[in-house]
Amino acid sequence: MSLKPLKKSDLGKDWVKGRKGKRVRLQPEYHLIVTEGTDTEPRYFEAIKRSINEKFRDHIQLVIEGVGDNTLSLFEKARQKAYNSANEYKHVWIVYDTDDFPAEHINYTVVLCEKASTEDMTFHAIWSNQCIELWFLLHFGFYQSDIHRTEYWDKLSGYLKSMGYGDYAKNRDDMYFILRPFMDAAIHNAKRLDEINTGKLPAIAAPGTKVYELIEKLKPYL
């Protein structure tokens, strides 16, 4: 009998009954998060991983890789990591910024994820136009203007300073914990942008971010 990951309804239960009253330990659900960046994104998701591990290590396992590549190459590296791993990944999340990469590469990464997905393993294109700092900024308010990514950093510094946390920097380890109380607002704001961007390809959906899809998936464990 193959072992399956826990359902959300099984949260808090260590065991489930099998046939003839036997108890079977279920394997955790494995998620691979592969990021374009090697600093900001891994630090943010590693903090999420630590938070989940405190209570739900047996239910869900996150593997986070910052590979320093982008779009099409990032997808291919994520695909190879997933297929060559001993872990049976249920979800593979490919996290990348649009930045100044070719539009056709940004958009085609989404297509590749759709084509690679199966019943057993789903690939997700988690893009941000222009960068993941938009996702951070949406915790504090709704932003619809297509401003340059460097302006996100200045705005984030303003919010963080007002809370006593100093300037924003890409190598901060505490962004998840600072932003956690405002997670619901960020999800709501990101969904509003998604509605505005309906029908647009990722390369022109600015501003916009799909990070909320990953966070919503993990939210029951946070």
Radius of gyration: 18 Å
Distance between the termini: 30 Å
Question: How many beta-strand segments?
Answer: 7
SS content category: alpha/beta
Helix content: 40-55%
Describe the structure.
The chain is of the alpha/beta class. Helix content is 41%, strand content 17%. It is built from 8 helices and 7 strands; from the N terminus they run βββαβαβαβααααβα. α7 packs across α8. It is globular, with a radius of gyration of 18 Å.
Give a topology summary:
Elements: E1 16-17, E2 23-24, E3 29-35, H1 40-56, E4 60-66, H2 71-84, E5 89-97, H3 103-116, E6 122-129, H4 133-137, H5 149-162, H6 175-179, H7 183-196, E7 208-209, H8 211-218
Parallel strand pairs: 3-4, 3-5, 5-6
Antiparallel strand pairs: 1-2, 6-7
Helix pairs in contact: 2-3, 7-8
Keywords:
alpha/beta, globular, 222 residues, two-stranded antiparallel sheet, five-stranded mixed β-sheet, 41% helix, 8 helices, single chain
